[in-house]
Amino acid sequence: MATKKVLFLCTGNSCRSQMAEAMVNALPDRQWQAFSAGTVPAGFVHPMALQVLKEAGIEHQGVSKSVDVFKGQSFDLVVTVCSDAEENCPVWLGSGRKLHVSLEDPAAVEGDEETRLNAFRKVRENIQRLILPQLQE
Q1: What contacts 67, CB < 8 A, 6 or more positions away?
Q2: Active-site annotation, residues
Q3: Which pLDDT value is given to residue 40?
Q4: Residues in a beta bridge with 34
Q5: Which of 124, 116, 53, 41 is CA-nearest to residue 85?
Q6: Higher confidence at residue 92 or residue 108?
Q7: Is residue 90 exposed (0-12), middle (13-18) or buried (19+ Cβ within 10 Å)?
Q8: DSSP E strands: which ranges in 18-115?
Q9: Residue 8 in contact with residue 79, Cβ under 8 Å?
Q10: How confident is the model at residue 90 (pLDDT cuts 50, 70, 90)?
Q11: Are 10 and 108 in contact (CB under 8 A)?
Q12: How many whole angstroms separate alpha carbon 40 and alpha carbon 84?
């Protein structure tokens, strides 16, 4: 069976979309290959995103990149993971199913380190609960 491709879109491509990309690419069945991009890329992957992925046994070497990198490519599934990306990328010019899953921006959470880490952990859990099952359809 051919590997399917999924693209995760967000605003900064530093947290949510990077985490989703890493989690899909870490799946043992290798049915999907994941990519991620942002409408306004931050230029870095948030260290706390990398930390909570590492807690789950996932080493991620992601790079924050623009959605423009993927223009003209086709994907089996395109997932927006924040409302801003959904508004700025309402039409993906290519084949594939579109899905929107609203995930809170963990980088916007204020508080001590543990509070902020817990926000990233919650996003990780929501990706596991809300997005990964979509790849079985």
Answers
A1: 9, 37, 38, 39, 89
A2: 10, 82, 89
A3: 86
A4: 6
A5: 41
A6: 108
A7: exposed
A8: 32-38, 77-80, 97-100
A9: yes
A10: very low
A11: no
A12: 10
The token pair at 9 is 């879109």
Domain boundaries, the chain: 4-136
The mean pLDDT of the chain is 89
Q: Are 14 and 42 in contact (CB under 8 A)?
A: yes
pLDDT tens, position by position, 14-32: 999 999 999 999 999 889 9
Token digits for 121?
């952990």
- Token pair 């609203």: residue: 102
Residue 101: helix, strand or coil by DSSP?
coil
With CA atoms as reference, report the closest residue to 39 among 5, 6, 69, 78: 69
Alpha-carbon Rg of the chain, whole angstroms?
Answer: 14
How is domain 4-136 classified at the architecture level of CATH? 3-Layer(aba) Sandwich (3.40)
Phi, psi angle pair for 37, to nearest 5°: -160, 170
Tens of pLDDT, residue by residue over 95-137, are 678 888 889 899 999 999 999 999 999 999 999 999 999 898 6
